[in-house]
Amino acid sequence: MESNNVISFADKLIAAIEQKGTPCIVGLDPRFKDLPAAITQQCLDEYGETLTGITHSILRFNQQVIDIVSPYVPAVKPQIAFYEMYGPPGVQAYLETITYARQKGLLVIADVKRNDIGSTVAAYSNAFLGRVPFWNNQLKPVFNVDAVTVNPYLGSDGIQPFLDDCQKYGKGIFVLVKTSNPSSSEFQHLPVEGEAFYLHVARKCKAWGENIMGNQGFSSVGLVVGATFPQEAIQIRKLLPQALFLVPGFGFQGGKAEDMKHFFINGRGAIINSSRGIIHAYRQEPYARKYGEEQYQQAIAESLQTMIRQVDQILQ
Amino acid sequence: MESNNVISFADKLIAAIEQKGTPCIVGLDPRFKDLPAAITQQCLDEYGETLTGITHSILRFNQQVIDIVSPYVPAVKPQIAFYEMYGPPGVQAYLETITYARQKGLLVIADVKRNDIGSTVAAYSNAFLGRVPFWNNQLKPVFNVDAVTVNPYLGSDGIQPFLDDCQKYGKGIFVLVKTSNPSSSEFQHLPVEGEAFYLHVARKCKAWGENIMGNQGFSSVGLVVGATFPQEAIQIRKLLPQALFLVPGFGFQGGKAEDMKHFFINGRGAIINSSRGIIHAYRQEPYARKYGEEQYQQAIAESLQTMIRQVDQILQ
Fold first, then answer.
1. Which end of chain A, C or N, has fewer beta carbons within 10 A?
2. Does residue B1 lie within any of the structural domains?
3. Which of A104, A113, A168, A204 is flagged as catalytic?
4. For residue B184, which residues of chain A lie inside 8 Å, CB to CB?
């Protein structure tokens, strides 16, 4: 497991994209109030109006979503905030969601945006990507995902422990470079030596990723580049042809299919994420009218097929 | 609880500093391998070589540390990475550590460095500072700490949900501005319009905090400014006389007592944190030789008194 023959995350992701035939991935960001009543009613009956009832509702919903999407997508991206908000049982639901997704053959990208000084980041990295010290210096995996999102603000020593675990265990990171939210420009676009700040972060990512190149020409140090900023994606892609882009913000946040081509290089090297637009599709038009909450599974399935088709047309 | 008469976090912190007579706080960053054998042996007997054994060891140790330090300091700062690394039971130990510290009259600053897009940050903010939606739109506190550390990279909309909860519930945030780690300069010192990047972040913090001013002249939007960078602290203090500084990196990371005066304004407005230097003092000189692991409690108590005295001398 710690040999030099470990397969790089980048190669695993590229292979999974080719196998499934799409770079679309699904964000597992379940909102309790938006869950189908059929599921919450079932858990209410079993667990009452308790925290356990909530976190089991979330887990059960996720398992159904994973059953629906796992034949079609290479990866899922569970956002930890929506689980951590329910405390330890919420984190338990997060862990079981990860386990279930991996059992179904999916790669799992934990959207955690963790960051800290080096000695603290080592704890995060060990927990999500590596191994954690137990009794008698035994090392055991805890969350054991394939990749995490990380925040670059503290510089190299807040990234290095992740790089070590990436190399050792065939894992990956996606560094926040240009985020999908409206105010991302406040700091990320500040001018530094004639260039936007985010491009300096992108250059650092290039350096961080140079020793973790896979055989398919991509590094396991990827970048988060928001779907809502295609012009910035062009700039970053010029600098980093060998970087994997994780592209959030498609659909619900406003990212458009026709812009997606800018995130790829020769049709490869990016994954496009939609969260609410897929998993809660039954609450949005046209699926709300067509299927309604009762047929939430059909709404999830159809919204995913629509997204896959849209992105596929762009890549043809 | 949601009335306008809520006491601001800034006022609560200033009052607690005055009551205890020191701005020193203790970081609860327990490393399992560094815990006293007396505690781990006890938990090994009770729970075996299990994850529960580890997380109970951590919790029991924390409770003893809190018993020792709570008469003397205004606040503790538990670093979540060292709990999250042990999965859901680790987060349970984190929650119980928070509860115990608050029962002992301490303010609790959750060192989580969370950050994300607005809708996701709302989940974090509700979990740590505010109230989380349960069944039937009931709102309940989950971690219920007094303040959190946050990362600014995503700009205002990744901060606003925290500001809302700060105002509503009398809570605070400390925004990473100039961090204590060696590589913090890589991005934080990039030149933007003739000024280091971190000063632009500091200015934003000023704007974010202007509507959450307490009666003592300080805002509940504080800043993280590393003890290892006193010159930068002078620059930031010029811009933000009304900001609370959370100053990590004292002791173990190299921050020196004589430099601490630069972080204050008229002897007020900063809290100085030491983590490993206090809680694992029995593993470091001169306490390791003087007390050894058996008398870990004396080592913790004496290292704290030394720190308090050093900082007090500077402030006289």
1. C
2. no
3. A113
4. 154-155
* Secondary structure letter of residue A48 according to DSSP: -
- Alpha-carbon distance B59 to nearest alpha carbon in chain A (angstroms): 14
Whether A1 is covered by a domain: the verdict is no
Per-residue three-class SS string for chain B: CCCCCCCCHHHHHHHHHHHHCCCEEEEECCCHHHCCHHHHHHHHHHHCCCHHHHHHHHHHHHHHHHHHHCCCCCEEEEECHHHHCCHHHHHHHHHHHHHHHHHCCCEEEEEEEECCCHHHHHHHHHHHCCCEECHHHCEECCCCCCEEEECCCCCHHHCHHHHHHHHHHCCEEEEEEECCCHHHHHHHCCEECCEEHHHHHHHHHHHHHCCCECCCCCECEEEEECCCCHHHHHHHHHHCCCCCEEECCECCCCECHHHHHHHCECCECEEEEECHHHHCHHHCCCHHHHCCCCCHHHHHHHHHHHHHHHHHHHHC
A113 in contact with chain B, both atoms CB, cutoff 8 A: yes
Separation between Cα atoms, residue A84 and residue A86, nearest integer Å: 5
Nearest Cα of chain A lies from the Cα of B19 at a distance, in angstroms, of 31
Out of B81, B92, B151, closest to residue A120 by CB: B81
Distance from CA of A238 to the nearest CA of B (A): 21
The number of C-beta contacts closer than 8 angstroms across A and B is 195
Is A265 inside a domain boundary?
yes
Q: Is residue A123 part of a domain?
A: yes
Taking an 8 Å cut-off on Cβ atoms, the answer to whether A176 and B154 are in contact is yes
Q: What is the pLDDT along chain B (316 residues), one digit of tens a residue?
A: 344 689 999 999 999 999 999 999 999 999 999 999 999 999 999 999 999 999 999 999 999 999 999 999 999 999 999 999 999 999 999 999 999 999 999 999 999 999 999 999 999 999 999 999 999 889 999 999 999 999 999 999 999 999 999 999 999 999 999 999 999 999 999 999 999 999 999 999 999 999 999 999 999 999 999 999 999 999 999 999 999 999 998 876 777 888 889 999 999 999 999 999 999 999 999 999 999 999 999 999 999 999 999 999 988 8
* Phi, psi (rounded to 5 degrees) for B148: -130, 155
Domain interval for residue B294: 9-315
Q: Find, in chain B, the residue whose alpha carbon is nearest to that of A82.
A: B123
CATH code for position B16: 3.20.20.70
B179–A153 CB contact, under 8 Å = yes
